[in-house]
């Protein structure tokens, strides 16, 4: 658990010694040979009745990634958002609804308890927050306080460019101390890679994709550690059928060639989690009269050359074109469909004009979807 200090002593918080800073594995966005930038974590805790003390904020200033932040707490639901012009959060209403929905879908029980019915103790604490309107009244003040203190205390321009902030939020219940936990993590958000990226096809679909459960953060670590150093994302699929689902932290789209006109194809919710940027893409496509089909992309179609392009979407990436989808040499599950080492490639420096148009329009929509915090 992090060393935590009260808000009253925040001004006196000093950096941890270099030996106490956690090692960050495979943190792709960090500049070479630099530690993770200073971050800020703010917590609110409530007893089992779920009623927060309005003044009960606890703040710490560690150097940890969002994944490390999630995993230091008991199991909970989570979401990752981005600021807009440093004062607002993009699609915050969607994040609120997703947190409330995930809390409803998830059942909280003590460790090693296999009951299908949620513990009455956890239900008493969490039920209020399963209402989006109530959740907003509790969460917004904490995020506002966290953003305010973060901008006072944390170095900026870590990546040498004007940057926004990544805001990660977790809600869970700690059975050991009988407390409801709500916490948020603030860290610099690097811009997405320029141009297009490489992805790998690994792993299997999630069992409960519709809920953002921190158990998934733990499960996906093995796949993150396996991915190549030049790989931006790992994409999940059903190896038996070739159907493609989503990335570890993104939605996956293809642009499919057609006799009439190209169309966008992406796996349908609830088989995948509908991310905030995925929803922006859907809205942009409707405005631009680009057909979207909520159906599983098929690996066989990509190998046959039926895709004009592909891209992934997420809070940090927005719309990020793919230049290559690779099936690694150590990934043998797809051998019935294609040999290991197979690559599906697209023009590296010139994504299809339709993908470029979607990318540009999503960037424009970011500001219009901003929820004012400060």
From TrEMBL:
Classification via InterPro entries: Aminotrans_IV, Aminotransferase-like, BCAT-like_C
Domain of life: Eukaryota
GO molecular-function term, one example from the UniProt record: catalytic activity
Protein name per UniProt: Uncharacterized protein
Pfam families found in the cross-reference section: Aminotran_4 (PF01063)
